[in-house]
Design brief:
Layout (H helix, E strand, L loop, with lengths): L9 E7 L8 E7 L17 H14 L2 E7 L1 H7 L1 H14 L7 E5 L10 E5 L7 H24 L5 H4 L5 H10 L20
Parallel strand pairs: 1-4, 4-5
Antiparallel strand pairs: 1-2, 2-3
Length: about 200
């Protein structure tokens, strides 16, 4: 884990929730000090929930700057999940008070942010510190939000699946139908027509 280019201000960008059936897509942008390291810092998917929570507090305390962006399920249905992911990243970048010189984006595609160069890096969240930090902030923020939604909609087990298409989640959709937080443009069940 390290930095893409030493001597410049890099912002790492990543999203969480792209493959979910319900809830928003959440993105984060993070600028870390050039000398920052942490032995556990990695792609959020490779960490335990406990490690993610500890690292989130560490990142919030140590980051030079960070932003969180969110696009809800209704807008995802309107513009599609890829565009919604890029929009969430732009919202997160808009919140940065310190302007980065380079944006490091996890993945292979990005909608360029005005006035700042970017580089897309496949599996960047396991290679570069700023992207890993963004991955952790996006994931923990979204998981926390979905657990809050689970209190209103307990039948869907969002407290554990956080909106992903688990068997339990799909069985609940089959039994109870869709909520106002489900993404209607997504294939919720193999037999999609049963929902309508």
């Amino acid at each position: 884990m390290g930095y893409y280019q030493w001597g410049i201000i890099e912002a790492g960008c990543d999203e969480a929730g792209r493959g979910c059936l319900a809830g928003p897509v959440v993105a984060a942008a993070v600028i870390l000090p050039a000398d920052y390291t942490h032995e556990d810092l990695n792609d959020s998917k490779l960490l335990t929930p406990e490690q993610r929570v500890v690292l989130r507090e560490e990142i919030l305390a140590r980051a030079i700057d960070y932003g969180i962006g969110m696009v809800d399920n209704e807008e995802i249905d309107r513009i599609n999940i890829l565009k919604a992911s890029f929009k969430a990243m732009h919202i997160a970048l808009n919140q940065l008070k310190k302007k980065p010189q380079l944006i490091l984006v996890d993945g292979n595609r990005f909608e360029p942010y005005p006035g700042i160069e970017n580089v897309c890096i496949i599996k960047g969240d396991s290679l570069y510190n700023p992207i890993a930090a963004a991955s952790i902030l996006a994931k923990t923020c979204r998981d926390e939000l979905m657990r809050q939604y689970a209190e209103e909609f307990p039948d869907y087990h969002w407290h554990t699946n956080v909106g992903y298409p688990t068997l339990q989640h799909r069985q609940a959709i089959r039994e109870f139908g869709l909520t106002k937080l489900h993404r209607k443009s997504f294939r919720q069940l193999p037999e999609q027509l049963e929902l309508f």
